[in-house]
Amino acid sequence: MSGDRLLELGAAELAERIRTCELSPVDLIERLLDHIRRHNGLLNAFITVASESSLKEAEVMEREAREGRLRGPLHGVPVAVKDLIHVRGMRFTAGSRILSDSRSESDATVVERLKSAGAIVLGKTNLHEFGSGTTNVNPHYGPCRNPWSPERISGGSSGGSAAAVAALMSPLALGTDTSGSIRIPASLCGVVGLKPTYGLVSRHGVMPLSPTLDHVGPMARSVRDVAVALEVIAGFDPMDESSVVYDVPSYADALEQDVEGLRVCLLEGQFEVPPDEEVERGLSRAVDALSRAGVEVVEEKFAAAQRVRECWAPIRLGEAAAVHDEWLRTRPLDYGEDVRMMLERGRAFTAVDYVRALWLRREIRKELLELLKRFDAVLCCSTPITAPRIGESSVTVRGESYEVYTALTSWTILFNVTGFPAVSVPVGLSREGLPISVQIAGRPFDESTLLRLARSLEQELDLRLVPPIAR
Prior knowledge:
- By secondary structure, the protein is an alpha/beta fold.
- It is 39% helix and 17% strand.
- The chain is globular and about 60 Å long.
- The relative contact order is 0.13.
């Protein structure tokens, strides 16, 4: 098999070839490291590349595979990890100047579980500073560029993870999501990204931004790979106070179940930014594809949409200001300007503002649960626009001007506020050759249904999205 074709294989297929000794983990890591060397200078997806340790680990995995001693479903499979998540012995920057010289003393729970399943950490990916932004334009480590168009943003804050997966630098990656930071870059880079239910995946060993909104989840080029990864990292962790005791099902097996007869709500309402014409066409393609698979899609308004930002702002900004209080007082000039300004905004909210936001969150959550009593899932855009250019602070959608941050988060923050699961799935390319994605969200801990719907959509559309730069 040619090197280029090998890099297009997903995590599940790579694991199967390693299991049967058809593929050498050492050869795979060597080809990926060469690919990273050729493309990371432009894309800037990785802050740290673990060349030496990943090769050493691949040698161990290869020997164990030959002896029939497989650690788990990801034996020998490479994974990229957002540099907000601790990996023992590796540099840990959180995309910041403040932590630029830090190293991790232990693994985050999600990393520990990936390693136990046989995964090999390739390196730490670029991110918006402290996970606090949507562009991944980082003043300390440089912007992460979109593999489909390097003058455009990758999206944030998990932009490095999305760009690495899209550009065939890694078959699998971890990201975090506080306001859309997995789904936004997944949407803009044309990969699959899942924000699980709050409490399903441990946040222990992950630097917090807004602790009641933070999530950790997988990104890959296929729904199946996301399902396999989720099954590995999900489950109760006593080290995380938000973790929920839950019997993790086989998400990969659930993909084999038919979706015929499921009901999906095409979500409408007074969301801040409407989908542009290209994204609207992408939504229509998704509706048609699901309908062909036997899914009933019904359009319905969601009245609470117009109050989501009102609820989100005091929680997200207030909690982040609390997390960063000491550094913001003692090292304010070490922050990038956009992050510092956002943290300062958080300081302006009062305890009354915060408590009222918590009350409103309960109301919004209740309304969404009521909707999901009548539907198996909801469907909407992931982002209402395709990737803006690096440096753009505003975008025009249907004749109206919006801040880039507002536009990119307008359809994602609902599911952070409620904690409900949501997955972003590519549905095609715009006329400019930029990825367009839709978002499928559902009931708490019902990731199996979301992934079934996402897989059906993937199969109906039969896309093979590989950016020209990676071919």
